[in-house]
Amino acid sequence: MDPNHYKMGWLMVAFDLPVKTKAERKRATDFRKFLLDDGFQMIQFSVYARPCVTFARQETHLRRIRLAVPEEGSIRAIYITKAQWERAYIIHGKPAKEAPPEEIPEQIQLW
Fold first, then answer.
1. Which fold, 3-98?
2. pLDDT higher than 90, residue 68
3. What is the DSSP letter of 2?
């Protein structure tokens, strides 16, 4: 991605982690906690997303994920523009309901 054409958007992470043994469940739980501590929001059980305001910020979070992924883990990350995110459909059970997409926080936490 060309950093000069970067637009505000979301970094979405989907993952598969084994959870058959107690040790695997702990590693999966620790990874989920890592994502939450790193500013991600749970979208679905194994799908998390966080807003990114710069290309460097996205790269920082991808680097952190690479360091935190459990050895047995499989992760897919994708960048979604704000416009694409806002056009997402969210449908829940029966009767089908639509919910608005998650909003970008008014104040981005920087550290």
1. Alpha-Beta Plaits (3.30.70)
2. yes
3. -
Query: Judging by DSSP bridges, how do beta strands 47-52 and 74-81 pair with one another?
Result: unpaired
Averaged pLDDT of the chain? 87
* Residue spans per domain, the chain: 3-98
What's this model's pTM, rounded to 2 decimal places?
Answer: 0.78
Between CA 19 and CA 21 the distance in angstroms is 6
Residue in the structure block whose two tokens are 């499989």: 74
pLDDT of residue 110: 58
**101 close to 86: Cβ distance less than 8 angstroms:** yes
Is 16 within any annotated ligand binding site? yes
Evaluate if residue 96 carries a pLDDT over 60: no
In this structure, the number of other CB atoms found within 10 A of the CB of residue 98 comes to 9
